[in-house]
Every structure is written in C-alpha cells, then in structure tokens.
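Researcher: Structure for this, please.
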Amino acid sequence: MSRPATVPAALRYAPFRGSAAIARGLLTRGQLAGPTWQRMFRGIYRHVDADADPLAWCQAVNLLLPPGAALSHRAAAVLYGVNLLGRSNPPTMEVTVPPPERLRPHPHLIVHDSEGHGPALVFIQPAEQIGEGRRIA
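Model: Predicted structure, token format:
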C-alpha cells in the first residue's frame, strides 16, 4: 500500500513555481507530476486540496508576470474583493504588459500592451493576498 505524499507547509495553500520548489528541495520532478499537485499554468502548480478561487488564479498569474507587468481589468478587481471573473475554472485573466516584455500565449490569459499608457499603473500593497511588490492596472 502506498503512503500519501508529504505536503510541505510552504506549498499547501498557494500556487507556486514548480522549478522553485524543486530547487529548494521541497519536491522532486516525479512528485510534482503525481496526483497531489495540479498544474495551473506552465510551471505553476497548486496542491489539489488548495482553493482554486479567483484569488488563487490571480496568485498563479502573478508568478508568470515579467518585470513591469500587472494584473489588470477584471483580474485586478479580485484584489479589491470584487469577483468579475465569474465561476469558470480556470477563469480568463487579464494582464497588462509593458513593451518590450512579452508573455507566452495561453487560452486563459488576455494580454494587454501598456504602451502609450505611461505611469497609469498604480502600486498597491496587497502583499498578504498576492505577493510583495506587484502592481495592478
């Protein structure tokens, strides 16, 4: 009889980069490929029992963003407690990316270019929700 996978506390509740968990020795590639973890985006995972609510999806997308990019539009509203994403799982998330940065296409991501918008992005501190130093548009 196989025993249940040990789930590191640091990975139990929020999305994480698989490569970072492996580098820190928290998981192996084999463990990450097992039934205990769900792939949210390429390289981004969550524990199967963790919430997959809109905030968790925002946290996952946050891990994908290049420097200067931000959650935007309906995804940004989630950080203020307003769910405009609906009930789809996964929801379609919107981000704004400054040139020349790019984001890999994904069917659940709408990528907006911030060119011409100047300093319209505002910095907020929802560190307890999404991670330090991220911006929303």
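Researcher: Any notable elements?
Model: Residues 118-130 have pLDDT under 50 and may be disordered. Residues 9-47 form one domain.
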